[in-house]
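Its record is quoted verbatim for completeness.
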Amino acid sequence: MAKNLVGIVMGSDSDLKIMKPCIEILKEFNIPYEVIVASAHRTPHRALSYAETADERGLEIIIAGAGAAAHLAGVLASVTTLPVVAVPINSTPLQGLDALYAMVQMPSGVPVATMAINGAKNAALFAMQILAGKYPEYKKLLKSYKTQMSVEVELKDKKVAEELSK
């Protein structure tokens, strides 16, 4: 696949440290992606233009990470028919609750799927689940990933049991 399937939009360059797990998952599973910084408040025309043209560029999902007022995901969702996944970022004294509330309180007709605070890894996995409906190779990789998680938990269970039996 040559075209990018996932667009990652961060409200600030300081969001990169939180969004890196998202990027790492997309890289791990060879999901083509692009990353930009665009603010709903400081660069609204850039953010709107990005979302308005995302479909034309071949994107299938947008992941938006932002902190504080965090209107980025909603602004993007307001001008695209693509699924938008929001990642509220802990960047204020409110520890991300302000961002979470801004993202989950979307008005009727403008849905945004919202992850946990700093939940960038889950945003990538959720995007992968959406893509798995269309691309069988991602479904297979996702099933393998989940099987591996199960194996890791079983190994941890055995380790705990051994530790407690001493």
Remarks:
- The chain has two domains: 6-134, 136-165.
- The longest helix spans residues 136-164.
- The CA atoms of residues 113 and 126 lie 9 Å apart.
